[in-house]
Amino acid sequence: MVEAKDIISKLHDSILGYILSFIPTMEAVHTSVLSTRWIHVWKSITNLKFDDSVLCCGKRMQKEQFVCFVNTMLLHHVNSSVQSLSLCLTWYHYDSSQVSAWISSILKRVVQNLHIHIHYADKLLFPSQTLFGCISLVQLVLQMRCTLSVPIFSCLPNLQSVTLSGIMLVSESESSNYSEDIILRFPLLKVFEARGCEWQTKQNINIEAPLLERFSIAIWRSLSNESHKSGIKIFAPYLVDFSYEGDLEQDIILLNSSSIRSASVVIVMDEDKMDRMENLGFQVHNLLAQICEVEQLKLLFYKVFFFSFFLVKQVLMHGTSIFTNLPVFGRLTYLQLNEVSCEALLNLLHNSPILNTLVLQNVMPQCFVSSLKDFEFRGFNVHEHELLLAKFVLANAAVLERMNICTAFWLRYSNIDMEKVKEQILSFPKCSSLVMIEFSHVND
Question: Do residues 379 and 442 lie in contact, with contact meaning Cβ atoms separated by under 8 Å?
C-alpha cells in the first residue's frame, strides 16, 4: 500500500497563509492543532475578519473570549501586508479605548481593504492621524458613531473607494487657520459615499479626486446647535453620478461638473429652521445650476420626520428664482419630482427641450386637482415635448374647462399637416369631461 504524502504541508508559509485566508479567521487559527508544522501558519494569513456575532463550534464567544482572541491575533500576526481586514462589533458593548487601540494596531499594518462596523462603543475617538497616514488603503468602509479629526492636508494615493456612515468630521486642531481650506487628495478614488455624517469642520473641505465617478452624500440633521457654514468643494472632472441628501447647511460646490449625467437631489427641510427657507431656495437653485448637463435628474423635497407640503411650499415661495432663472437642461431626458407648483413644473419643462420621461412621485400639482380651469399654450410648435405637455395636462387636470392651443406663426407656411396634429391632441385621454379644446394662431 502506497503511503499518502502530505504535499500541502511542504508549501511555504506565505502560500499556506494565503490559502487559509479563504476560510473564517477562527477556523484558520484552529489549524494550529493539526501538527507542529501548522502551529504558526495562521500568523501569515492575508485576510483577517473579527466578528463578535459569528458562532464558533455552534456557540457565540463570550465577550472576554472575543477580546482575548482579537488581542492575540493582532499581537502574533506576523504578515505585515494584509489584503483585507474586517472588524465588526455588533453584539457586545466595548470600551472606547479598547476599540481605538485595536483600530490603531490595524492601521499600522500595510492593509489594503479595511471594513470597520461598530454598533456599541461610547464616545469613540478615531485614531485619525494613523488613518490618514495609511497610504496602502485601497478600499475604506467606516460604519460607526465616532469623531474623525481631519488634517489640513492629506493624500491617500491608492484609495479607490470610500464609504462612511455616522462619522462626525471635525478640524484636526482648534488652533487651525480657519481661512485655509482642508485638502483631501485621492488620485485614484472612483467612489465616495457618506451617509449620516456630520461635517463640523470650520474650514471648507476640498475633495480632489481626478478619477472620481460616483459621489453620494447624505448629511442628516446635526445633533449640535452650533451652525457650521463651511462648504464642500469637489474637484472631479470625470464625475458621472452625483447624489445629495440634506438641508444644504454646507454649500456644495462642483468644479468641472459638466461630466455629470445622473443626479439625485433630495432636500430634507427642518421645520425648526423656517428662518432660512428663503436662503435654502437660492441654495437649491445654485446646486441645480451646477448640474444642468445631466441626462437624468431626481429632485425631491421632504420635511424632517413627517412630510409637509406647506414646508415645501415655503421654500418654493421664498426662492422664486429656483426654477425661473435656471439654465437650459439641454441633455435632460428623465425628470422625477415629488412636490412642485404648476409654475415650477412649466418652467422646468420649458428648460428641458428633449425631456421624454416625467415622473411625479406621490403627488400631483394642487392646481391640477382642484382649480386649473383654463390652459392656454401660446407659440405651440408641434414639438414632441409640447405634445407630451398637452397630453399631461389633459390627463390630470380634473376641473379643466378650456384648453387653447395657439400655434406658432411659421406653421402656416410649413408642410406639417395640422389637421392630423389636431386629431392627435383631441384623441388624448381627458380627466375632465367638461374640457373644450380650441386651436388658434398667435396673431388671431
Answer: yes
User: 384-396 and 418-426 are packed helices; what angle lies between their axes, rounded to 10 degrees?
Assistant: 30
C-alpha cell at 357: 420621461
pTM across the whole model: 0.76
Determine the Cα–Cα distance for residues 170 and 87; give it in Å rounded to an integer: 24
Provide the grid cell at 205.
473641505
C-alpha pair distances (Å), 121 with each of 55, 212, 334? 21, 32, 44
The set of residues, in sequence order, having a beta carbon less than 8 Å from that of 257 and lying 6+ positions away, is 239, 242, 290, 291, 293
Determine the distance from the C-alpha atom of residue 219 to the mean position of all C-alpha atoms in its chain, rounded to a whole number: 9
First-residue to last-residue Cα distance in the chain: 108
Which grid coordinates belong to 129?
492621524
Residue 262 corresponds to which cell in the numbers above?
Answer: 445622473
- Predicted confidence pLDDT, tens digits, the chain (444 residues): 455 566 666 666 667 666 666 666 666 666 655 656 666 666 667 788 888 877 565 667 788 888 888 888 787 766 667 788 888 888 888 888 888 888 888 888 888 999 999 887 667 778 888 899 889 999 999 998 888 889 989 999 999 999 999 888 888 765 455 667 899 999 999 999 999 888 888 788 999 999 999 999 998 655 444 555 678 999 999 999 999 998 888 889 998 889 999 999 998 876 665 556 667 778 888 899 999 999 999 998 877 544 444 445 555 554 455 667 788 999 999 999 887 767 777 788 888 989 888 887 766 666 666 778 888 888 888 888 788 888 888 988 888 999 999 888 888 778 888 889 999 999 999 999 899 999 987 655
Question: All 3 cell numbers of residue 215?
Answer: 459621489
Residue 119 CA from chain centroid, whole number: 22
Give CA–CA dist 444/442, Å, rounded: 6
